[in-house]
């Protein structure tokens, strides 16, 4: 990898390609490393591990296609995402996992093509049972008392009875625990799911094909962001040593070991996307300076709501300041913060690089005030490889709208 200053010079030279506009930079090399390293650490201990990329975290087609090239599954939560997954993959690969909340016949279509559907409500189960034209394999999402998702353990016997009475097969169980990403949380949920799997198999009289533990793992991040989370930031290896070891020890004597599925989104994509932006103006407010960029916190993802994203001034990387600068976005919202205590020196026109913007950024931004940014694929040295998405246009806002019954021009 090149020295930082050389990479910054290349970033500035890329303005000829990007026209000086703010853009997302997707580091394909980093994304591939994240995927391969996470999968490798788990497979060292439990070979029958598969990675399913969470489409909702960032569903840019080029990223989804890269996952497919790596042999990963697509974890989707809507019919739209399912259609996107099939557009990126061959329908008969069976590498689609559905965990959505809204029932529909598309759930049966996914099963028809050997995908996985983890039903999480009575309505979802009824939809699958009533629309399945042949025997299918159904997954069950297990929730917790304080969560609105999935079936409670107390409902499991009834769920299993319904599936068995319909002469269908229970293929696996699934969970997704939000909140903490700690090793203790992962240890606790893995032990719980292994216990439930044992109970389910005892009731059914046959082994499950998979145990899906969902996502919500920490990914890699720079030191400035990492220290804001405290000391408990597990590595991929530490997650594997905790989770995969428990699964291996449970099933190592079984002839057919169930597939262990992980559904990371943030852990794969967060640090693989940066934003190249420009300082628009700088103001003095008491003992602070306030710098406004041509991007907003909405472009950066949900993490900007509660953490200070790492910002590097690539125009003048060595300049420091004695007073903090609050780096803000362009929206007319007071809470549009990107970094609340930046200690470098910024001036109007400086180009800055904002890190860790891959998770829930492009998939949630929409056309709020300004349309979507363009995205370019780069390598570790920030050499542009290709354009992945063009910058949004007015037509993205007016398309399919009407005024007085007349379609808006696009």
UniProtKB/TrEMBL annotation:
Pfam families: Orn_Arg_deC_N (PF02784). Keywords: Lyase, Pyridoxal phosphate. Its cofactor is pyridoxal 5'-phosphate. GO terms for molecular function: diaminopimelate decarboxylase activity. The active site is at residue 332. Its EC number is 4.1.1.20. Transmembrane segments: none annotated. Residues 37-270 form the Orn/DAP/Arg decarboxylase 2 N-terminal domain. The modification N6-(pyridoxal phosphate)lysine is found at residue 56. It comes from the Bacteria. One of its GO terms (biological process) is lysine biosynthetic process via diaminopimelate. This is Diaminopimelate decarboxylase. It comes from Fusicatenibacter saccharivorans.
């Amino acid at each position: 990898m090149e020295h930082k200053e050389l990479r910054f010079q290349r970033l500035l030279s890329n303005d000829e390609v990007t026209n000086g506009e703010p853009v997302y930079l997707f580091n394909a090399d980093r994304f591939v490393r994240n995927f391969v390293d996470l999968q490798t650490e788990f497979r060292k201990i439990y070979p029958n591990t598969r990675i399913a990329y969470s489409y909702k975290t960032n569903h840019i087609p080029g990223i989804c296609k890269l996952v497919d090239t790596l042999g990963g599954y697509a974890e989707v939560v809507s019919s739209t995402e399912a259609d996107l997954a099939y557009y990126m993959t061959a329908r008969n690969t069976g590498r689609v996992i559905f965990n959505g909340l809204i029932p529909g016949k598309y759930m049966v279509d996914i099963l028809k093509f050997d995908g996985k559907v983890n039903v999480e409500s009575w309505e979802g189960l009824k939809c699958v049972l009533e629309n399945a034209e042949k025997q299918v394999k159904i997954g069950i999402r297990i929730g917790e008392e304080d969560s609105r998702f999935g079936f409670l353990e107390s409902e499991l016997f009834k769920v299993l009875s319904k599936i068995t009475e319909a002469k269908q097969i229970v293929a696996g169980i699934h969970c997704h625990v939000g909140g903490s990403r700690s090793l203790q949380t992962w240890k606790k949920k893995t032990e719980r799911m292994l216990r439930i799997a044992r109970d389910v198999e005892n009731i059914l009289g046959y082994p499950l094909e998979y145990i899906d533990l969902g996502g919500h793992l920490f990914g890699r991040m720079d030191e400035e962001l990492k220290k804001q989370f405290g000391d408990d930031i597990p590595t991929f290896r530490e997650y594997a040593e905790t989770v995969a070891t428990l699964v291996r020890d449970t099933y190592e004597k079984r002839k057919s070991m169930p597939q262990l599925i992980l559904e990371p989104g943030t852990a794969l994509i967060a640090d693989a996307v940066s934003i190249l932006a420009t300082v628009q103006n700088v103001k003095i407010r008491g003992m602070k300076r306030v710098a406004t960029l041509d991007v907003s916190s909405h472009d950066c993802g949900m993490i900007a709501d509660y953490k200070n994203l790492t910002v590097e001034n690539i125009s003048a990387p060595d300049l420091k300041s004695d007073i903090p600068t609050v780096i803000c976005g362009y929206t007319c919202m007071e809470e549009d913060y990107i970094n609340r205590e930046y200690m470098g020196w910024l001036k109007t026109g400086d180009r800055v690089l904002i890190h860790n913007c891959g998770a829930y950024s492009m998939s949630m931004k929409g056309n709020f005030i300004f349309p979507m940014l363009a995205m370019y694929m780069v390598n570790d040295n920030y050499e542009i490889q290709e354009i992945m998405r063009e910058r949004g246009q007015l037509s993205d806002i007016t398309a399919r709208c009407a005024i007085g019954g007349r379609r808006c021009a696009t």
